[in-house]
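Look over both lines before class:
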Amino acid sequence: MDKLSNYFRATVEEMRYNVTWPSTTELQKSAGLVLIGSLVFAIVVGVMDISFESILKAFYNSFR
């Protein structure tokens, strides 16, 4: 039990004094980049899905 409490104490000390936390403006910029990147990725995947769907429909309809 002593090892576990030492581990948690060391973890709290590390997080308080040794970790460099980003500022609020850095967090906002990063969040904006993640949002924009996610939207671009979703649009690209959506366009690919629609394209493959129409290509496969045309392919399958050619055998009717």
In short: The chain is about 85% helix and 0% strand. The two ends are 72 Å apart (CA to CA). The mean pLDDT is 95. Helices lie at 2-17, 24-61.
